[in-house]
Predict the structure.
Amino acid sequence: MRRRVPRSLVAFTALCFVLLHLPVLVLAVFSLNRSRYSVQWTGFTLEWYRRLLERPDILAALRVSLTVGAVSTLVSTVLGTMIALALARHRFRGRTLLEGLLYLPIVTPEIVVGISLLLLFATLHMALGIPTIVVAHVAFSVSFVTVVVRARLEGMDRALEEAALTLGADEVATFRRVTLPLLWPGILAGALLAFTMSIDDFVITFFVSGPGSTTLPVLIYSMARRTIEPTINAVSTVLVVVTTVLIFFFDRLTRGREPTEGAL
């Protein structure tokens, strides 16, 4: 028999959700406001979304964000999957140390990561630009991909792979026809998480970006420093919606069917 949830707990939870999402809701509402000053509601309009397509600086920043996100996601997904396979399936010297280092980018404050990467690039005499942003995003995304993929690996039934080997398949065929299909939802979930974090990152990107490599979050920050114009509300709302959709798909993949289901 299910126990009824206390109404006070439901009310408190609802209040927390309202407080968390109210600023985003206000941002979305005022992105549809006809007023140029976003201080009072004067009518509904989609004009500010249309003007986004007329802003070359916003379109250029969007291209940079998508380029950096795609490249860093691809690299971090491949590296993270390989690291997860190594940690989950093999025992080697230094494994414990590697596991500890794996969580270091996750718990380290972003401003510390940004400054340390900036010092590294300066020491190596690397010009700041899209390549340095990609390296920085890969540096913090690999750990998250590894954690997600490894969690998927830990839930997989090794008996399926052993059965394939027993029936005559070699290790490559077993990985391609058994392991990879079972692992694919975890890999895709890790890739979505990496892409979401790359698109949404500001602090680290702010330190390692250079002329001509401004991403969308950095551009929004520079626009907000000058004046709060309606296009800022519109582009911020678009960024929130895209991030929310990606997180939704990530959540659906991580809550997907069990790895062993349908494998036989």
Summary: The radius of gyration is 22 Å. Residues 162 and 174 are 9 Å apart (CA to CA). The first helix runs from residue 7 to 30.
